[in-house]
Amino acid sequence: MTQKCRLCQHPMDFFDSARNRDYYRCPQCDSIQLDHEQLLNPMDEKKRYDTHNNDIMDKGYQSFVSPITNYILNHFDKDDQGLDFGAGPGPVISKLLMDQSYSISQYDPFFHPDNELLNKSYDYIIACEVIEHFNHPKSSFNAIKKSTKTNGQWIFMTYLYDDSIDFQKWHYKNDETHVIFYSKKTLEYIKNIYQFKSLIINNRLIIFSN
């Protein structure tokens, strides 16, 4: 059965199999996606997230998210409205920003499922290690785009794939909830299709300006 890209709807090509999971690559947007029939059901997905040890007081975790935290502190004011999209059970970035008197709300379909937050507009939306979890990336990106103010920004963190990476040995695919991987070409596709003004890629830190 043909696999259609869940980001751009284009038919995908088989890419690789690893750890009893099959992956497809889209020739249009260049994303790599898990076979849609192998996606976890919501109950099993939440069980996997419940095993994450995201202690908001952990200094190592705070350091890991610091590219986003430092960017917000250096580019936005305390009066700007932010949204932590996919905040998870331990929203460390929100805590660090709120400790500095920043105004930021938390949304997560499992842990902070307040859909009303998605009907508001924000100066910045952050998603730290979240976009690789999108089972339905098109609808997720649509929701984020709709909630981003004009001149606002999306600030993401994820690991990008490129052809120098040995996919079989790549650690990032091993998490069962990591179901879509992006390349620089994929990000350019997202920039163009959603009509963003600019895209900045700084290692794991990705910034779209609206």
Automatic annotation (TrEMBL):
Highest taxon in the source lineage = Bacteria
Residues spanning the signal sequence: none
Pfam families xrefs: Methyltransf_23
Per the record, the coiled-coil ranges are none
Recorded hits in InterPro entries, A to Z, give: SAM-dependent_MTases_sf (IPR029063)
In the record, biological process GO terms are: methylation
UniProt name for this protein? Class I SAM-dependent methyltransferase
